[in-house]
Amino acid sequence: MQLDSLTSYAGRQSLFITNAKSTKNFGGAMLHLPHNLSGDSIELSAMIKLKDVDSSSSLGFMLRIDPGVFFDNLMEPKINGTHDWREFKIKAKLKPNITSTIALGIFLSGQGKIWADNVKVMVDGEDITTSSEHYIPFAKDYSRIGASGVNEIDATKKTVDRLADLGRIWGLLKYRHPTVALGEENWDNQLFQSINLVASADNKHEIEQHYMEVLDQLGISEVHSAKPLNSDAQQTVDYEWIDDLPYTPILKNRLKVYQHTTFEQHHYIDMFPGTGGAKITGEFTYEHLKNPDVGFRLLSLFRYWNIIQYLSPYRSITDTLWNDILSIYIPKMIQADEQIDYLFTATAMLGEMKDAHTQLWSQHEALKLISGDRSIPVRLKYAEGKPVVKEISLAHIDNSKLRVGDVIIRKNGRSPEYILDSLRHLLPTPNQAVIERELSTKIARSIDEIVYLDIERNGEQIQLEVEAVASKNLKFEKDTVALKRLVGNILYINHGYITRKDIDERATEIKSANGLIIDIRNYPRDFVIFELAALLLPRPTPFVKFTHTGLKNIGDFHFTKTLEVGTNTEDYYKGKVAILIDESTQSSAEYHSMAYRMAPHAKVFGSQTAGADGNTSAFYLPGGLYTTISGIGVFYPDGKETQRIGIVPDVLVKPTIQGIRDGQDEVLQKALEYLDSSEK
């Protein structure tokens, strides 16, 4: 990188960046502005010339406003090739109240040559290099603060009730107040300040006065407050709690104004195109916090509770009423002053949704110290209500003390039932199938190098000392063949490996089979639902409808039009179809199953699936804890639910202990019997 005085657009020199070698690395120049900027919008522009930037390489032109205000680097789609001087622009809304840094950059990713000249930064149409009137100090970067400033809290019932009301009010204003929706208020910091006042106030009048002051500070906003028509709403936000607040009608009415606010844009919510699911944005991760203090722990609870309150399509089917969760978990979060206690409490809190999509996906080191990162070298599967050795790791087959079909009676002196009781609050538990699936993994895991097992083998009880090895080194046999022909011209489709290309290339073979087996006891490698269903159905057939929320009325979930698969054709597969499912069939796999079972002669064989269908919405809780929720509701065309229930098989088939010992796939066998019979 250097200044080039021979090639320029308008001035004496240009910035020249070159790289002669093919590489995945990038290089260039970046500048952090020395001042924050006041105004409505910022525009970064430059004249840029490219030469021999190959197809795997790209120009990068960047504007970044932190923390999390705006980022774009013009890398999608790639800008490459050779072209003369051309103007590039990036424009963004300014949020000076929360902006801690503004960075500009130009770089080359890969191979080629670029020149840049006439770089300009404009605020509301004015060049900031010719005037300093827009210069203001940067805001404090609250995304990196180490302490919330919240004082020690005594978790009395009175305090817990006050804080529960605060969590609801804070969330209502976060998602429904126009000023907060702009993202110009540090709403996390507002919560910390409110916690201190609410927890220490002498009486409810002081608290009400505080809420009045907060509303006054947010200003009077013009809002659309007419109650929407919800005749087609599957789920609406419950605002009855406002009437139950121990405050005057004046405050209650001021809060009710924002119940039905509509937005074009929102700092904390965007919508995924196509599916309509909510994209959760604008949240600080606070990933630098190893042991978040009580303020951050309560923020974790309040953030999660309100995400479910406004953005979950399944809020109404939890075991515990969602409105009660705050009062249950406020004392737990207050008392969770050790890192591991916070992680356990957060995990249990996430599990209250009973959603297999919602658990602590980030592998926190502190949790590894509890659950371990070692495992006995087998894969367990529940059969007849017991954990059974289903497979042995490839590297341990020859010297394994365990055999396929061994039943685990006790691990380190503890029964599977005891282990489940101790871990149930930490497991996603939408249904029994998922409980057994997750427990199989937990029983196999270990923090110790030696695991003491009591097993049952062919009616005999045996005690074993089994070495636990690093979980990451375990490898099991995989069937990676996408399609294979079985006896009798039965075509077996491995749904975990088949691709759209496979279906296109082998469509004739699929349609000429005497029977089809679609094994979805796995997760789809590709999204083949419409391509494969088109071969199975004679006409467009309804198979699913969704619910989703939107910025017009956040928190109310409405049904979409019913979605169809299949086309009008006589050239479709007219034989019998057997679909195989079990507890590993989850999310996209369940969605595909719903479509395939619409085929005229299709039957579903197996057992209960995970009951976690639909696209996910991801977010972080303080401490960098990563999780997701089901972001759209998935229903059958008649409105019947799939969440927690899963795909209900036409023919219930569960593995048996003897079947596992004999190496039989009993679900597959039952499906083959159907395909070989005269039954339709």
Automatic annotation (TrEMBL):
Organism, as annotated: Sphingobacterium corticis
The organism's place on the tree of life at top rank: Bacteria
UniProt xrefs under InterPro entries: ClpP/crotonase-like_dom_sf, Tail-specific_protease
PANTHER family reported in the protein's UniProt record: CARBOXY-TERMINAL PROCESSING PROTEASE CTPA (PTHR32060:SF30), TAIL-SPECIFIC PROTEASE (PTHR32060)
Name of the protein this chain belongs to: S41 family peptidase
UniProt domain Tail specific protease: residue ranges: 471-654
